[in-house]
Amino acid sequence: MTHVLDARGLVKEYRRGRAVDHVDLAVREGERVALLGANGAGKTTTLLMCLGVIEPDAGTVVICGHRLPKGRSAAMTHVGFAAGYLPLPERLRVREYLRMYGQLYGLGDPEALAAKGLERFGVGHLDVAMGTELSSGQKTLVGIVKATMHDPELLVLDEPTASLDPDVAWRVRTGLTRLCDEEGTALLVTSHNMLKVERIAERVVFLAGGRRLPAGRHRPVARRLPGPDRGRDRLP
Amino acid sequence: MVTPLREIEFVAGVALFGLIKLVLGVAVVALSALAFYAFDVTSLGLGLVPIAAVLLVAGWAVALFVMGLVLRFGNGAEAFAWGIFFVVMPLSGVFYPLSALPAFLRPVSVLLPTTHAFAAGRALVDGRGMDWGALGLATATTVLVSAAALAFLVWMLRLFRRRGYITRYT
């Protein structure tokens, strides 16, 4: 089985210190991986380096056989990304926004795929809504639809359910699980909440202080993260 | 940034969109001047067209430069979008002749496309006909300034990635 994401030795240093310290991260085809850690552990920086949004100070990233940064444009055709902090344009309707992204991904019929995506996540009624009319949960859902429209091999989500109420969070998890099962999409999701991660991930990678914790060293960190039965051995 | 869109495609799209907005904005202003002040921009003849085109492109280049500043320094740099013209206009001899400028600033004026565009415009308004020399200098400096602004924007985009400035918004 090949890797859709193979990141090795990632390092990122900011003025405030080293945010990511020699992190390796690999995701196989169809695998669901969670990147878990407390706030400031380096999850988002690691993720953004894997996506080519931040240039690593050291290390390599290969996505579906395309090595970044030179192959970034080709690599991104295989990737979908969504995060709660990504803004929606205020003066576009949801269907216009999704059509624009569909065109960026070179889709033949972006309107039909946008409609299908909105239905998959139970928000088909939002297609004519303006960006300013959406709640934060609805924006998150639309962002996930945008990220999944082009059937990416790898779906990357940064704290996808952080600001969602339980009903919407359930809808997101259900939609994502179904998508991964039906389309064989690999998933990389970050979170600081163990309970949310357990319900969707097959494998968990722990980050603390910018470093990846080896297997077996995660329990002290896991105990400090929110979620019941934090230290149990069910997690790999 | 997480799409197949290349940096140069993004810059080209932003530049083209900016130019279209600029042309539309100027068209509205010209029509308003006609409607409210009976000032017909075409009354000076077709000579005004190349001068206006040079000024439009120069303004667009300044906008690209400001975009680069926003990428580097954050949203606070947007203030330069307006503030920069308060520096460029006096240096271009719009309000008073260039000879009134301190000697060390005159070489800066020579490099500005607005200096030569306004000189050509003044010649036209004064009935001296088109100053082709000034227009030529305006065109040449506009090309240089536009190329520099585009290069600056691409550089700032690369710096944005290298220094991880996206984390300002996460």
What does this structure look like?
- The complex is a heterodimer of chains A (236) and B (170).
- Chain A is of the alpha/beta class.
- Chain A is built from eight helices and ten strands.
- In chain A, helix 4 crosses helix 5.
- Chain A is globular, with a radius of gyration of 17 Å.
- Chain B has one domain.
- Helix content of chain B is 70%, strand content 0%.
- Chain B contains six helices and no strands.
- The interface between A and B is medium-sized, with 26 and 13 residues.
What is the CATH class of chain A? Alpha Beta
SS summary, helix count of chain A:
8
Number of helices of chain B: 6
| Helix fraction of chain A by DSSP (H/I, runs of at least 4) | 25-40%
Shape of chain B: globular
* Structure summary, number of beta strands of chain A: 10
User: Based on CA inertia axes, which overall geometry of chain A fits?
Assistant: globular
Distance between the termini of chain B: 13 Å
What CATH calls the topology of chain A is Rossmann fold
| String of helices and strands of chain B | HHHHHH
Give the mean pLDDT of chain A: 86
CATH superfamily of chain A: P-loop containing nucleotide triphosphate hydrolases
Largest interface: A-B, 26 and 13 residues
Task: Count every beta strand of chain B, where a strand is a DSSP E run of 2 or more residues.
Answer: 0
Poorly predicted ranges of chain B (pLDDT <50, ≥5 residues)?
none
Q: What Rg of chain A, in angstroms, do the CA atoms define?
A: 17 Å
Largest beta-sheet characterization of chain A: 6 strands, mixed
Mean pLDDT of chain B: 87
Which features does this protein show?
heterodimer; A: 236 residues; alpha/beta; Rossmann fold; 6-stranded mixed β-sheet; 4-stranded antiparallel β-sheet; 32% helix; disordered C terminus; B: 170 residues; mainly alpha; 6 helices; 70% helix; globular
How do you describe this structure in short?
The complex is a heterodimer of chains A (236) and B (170). Helices cover 32% and strands 26% of the residues of chain A.
